[in-house]
Amino acid sequence: MNKSPMLMPFALLIAGGIAVLVMATSLMVPAQPVWADLPPRPTPGEWQGEELEKTTIELRVRFEDAQQAARWQELWTVVEWQDAFGDWHEVEGWKGALDERVDSEARKAWGVSPNDLGKGPFRWTIYRGPAGKLLAHTQSFYLPHATGQTTTVSVTLGVSGSATSDPFLEVEYVGSGGPAIELRVRFGGAWQAARWQELWTVVEWQDAFGDWHEVEGWRGALDEVARGEGRKVWWVSLDDLGKGPFRWTVCRRPAGRPLAHSKPFHLPGTGEERVVVGVTLGP
């Protein structure tokens, strides 16, 4: 006699119980987080050896005011990293007071892991204290590309406490005007202002190794002078929103020597923005 039909309800009952047990167990296991590919966040003592000691990033702060120089130990430094959208975030392990003062220059250094060579972009930020006023940002930079190298970045604090050599960067809302990038050139003397049409501008993009390359379609003379500033505008394709980093370079003429580089920037993030970057030419 075949007894298998009588055993089927019992087998189904066991299978159903196992399924319920598996589901309950799965609900008890916490979901695993998805980790983003973030820049290094070192902690003291995390890396050891000569490679860490020799491979560093270094900030040098120059003072234009004797009172600031005398109170250099009150300053607070933070290294920040830039994400794909152009936003800056603090690196948790790279915060602290300046290490030392050598003549009129204060310094801060961090060791770089061999696993993080070439990463970026980063920048240094200087505050009046751990919870104090923002004083300056440096230009962006990449970590050393080989062991034994030091990436040094400098900034000069003016009498007012701001960075005198740091060019400006801002994002303007233009509504339906379309996304664009704009350069504004401040002249260092009347002679430069009178010969503004001789200047030549080039937009450059930065590769993963920190090298800069000219953008073929974004070269040309200044468009106009308005309110004492030379200006140049390029429109941005909607397909290129958010890309970067880029920078403006100002030359004396199409084949002349570079006079100034702007702060690195990313293209507008939306179709209603214009990224405005400025440089100041020396006298």
Write up this protein:
Helices cover 14% and strands 39% of the residues. By secondary structure, the protein is mainly β. It has 2 domains: 50-157, Immunoglobulin-like, CATH 2.60.40; 169-280, Immunoglobulin-like (Sandwich), CATH 2.60.40. The strands form 4 sheets. A 5-stranded mixed β-sheet has the order 9-17-10-14-13, with no helix packed on it. Strands 4-5-1-8 form a 4-stranded mixed β-sheet. It is globular, with a radius of gyration of 27 Å. Residues 20-52 and 159-167 have low confidence and may be disordered.
Short description:
With 283 residues, the protein is mostly beta strands. The protein contains 4 helices and 17 strands. It has helices spanning 4-28, 50-54, 66-70, 190-194, and strands spanning 56-63, 76-82, 88-97, 100-102, 105-111, 122-127, 134-137, 150-157, 169-173, 180-186, 200-206, 212-221, 224-226, 229-235, 246-251, 258-261, 273-280.
